[in-house]
Amino acid sequence: MAVGSREVEVFERSRPRLEAIAYRMLGSAGDAEDAVQDTYLRWQAADREYVEIPEAWLTKALTNICLNQLTSARARRETYIGQWLPEPVLAGDRMLGPAETIEQRESVSIAMLTLMERLAPAERAVYVLREAFGYPHAEIAAILEISDANCQQIHHRARQHLAAGRARAGADASAARRIVEEFLAATLSGDVESLVRLLTDDAVSVADGGGHVPARTTPMVGALAIARFLRTALRPDLVERYVGGGTLTAHVTEINGEPAVLTLVGDRVVGVISPELTGDRITALRVQASPDKLDRLTRRWAATHE
């Protein structure tokens, strides 16, 4: 069925919300864009004369597409080389969606997107729609074609799973940025003692190289081990060997709503280090170095720093 200008306008009004939902569900901006495009194709083919509430129809279509992707992603990640981490996005990217509430901001952090990988597809869908977008249980139940009571049980179970892996209270925004700036300075200088002081004793570092960039296939545990590794991680000769020539630069910037370290070689983003804070110390580092997951960030960084 042909799509008129009004139907296109209806879809485009919903696109930012659909992208933000899909990104939280899938942890990948590229996959989110694909899911939204597939939703548009379904919208194009639908008998829209019988669609009473287009926004609800589009949300249901998108959610079903994401559920299918999450199911197949679980199988793909069994053969993924090394650790899988979400695709980071720069501040201002509409994939981040609404950020008015604590729940909305938290739901898109790298730490939470990583934790949500533990959830079953239905748990993740319910959690995202409820916590980040405020959908009532009755509407989520209709989207998933389950009972209201079942929806509430799934939501409760999802919250329990996430609470078990969530860090204790982090620092406020200004303190968090200061800590990350101190972390970057210590890393660039190779100051192991300062790094150890910034890290909790049981800190964990996880890196995703996507099979393209050398990265540990298991997490690194312990402040001293991580500090010793970081002492040499940004050495120019190692950067040259693994990511090609060019001048290495590093910046503290906002990624997924929180301060993170962005590393570039020339104008290409080659890594993102996302610290997770507990009080005034770093309890986890998530290092995204897979080129496939840094293309979008590279483009947006270039567009905002011309």
Keywords:
306 residues; alpha+beta; Butyryl-CoA Dehydrogenase, subunit A, domain 3; Nuclear Transport Factor 2, Chain: A; 6-stranded mixed sheet; 13 helices; 15% strand
Give a short summary of the structure.
With 306 residues, the protein is of the alpha+beta class. The protein has 13 helices and 6 strands.
Structure, explained:
This protein has 2 domains: 5-165, Butyryl-CoA Dehydrogenase, subunit A, domain 3 (Up-down Bundle), CATH 1.20.140; 173-304, Nuclear Transport Factor 2, Chain: A (Roll). It has 13 helices and 6 strands. It has helices spanning 5-26, 29-45, 54-77, 102-106, 110-115, 121-132, 137-144, 148-165, 173-189, 192-198, 223-233, 236-243, 295-304; strands at residues 199-208, 220-221, 248-255, 258-265, 268-278, 281-288. A 6-stranded mixed β-sheet has the order 2-1-6-5-4-3, sandwiched between helices. It is globular.
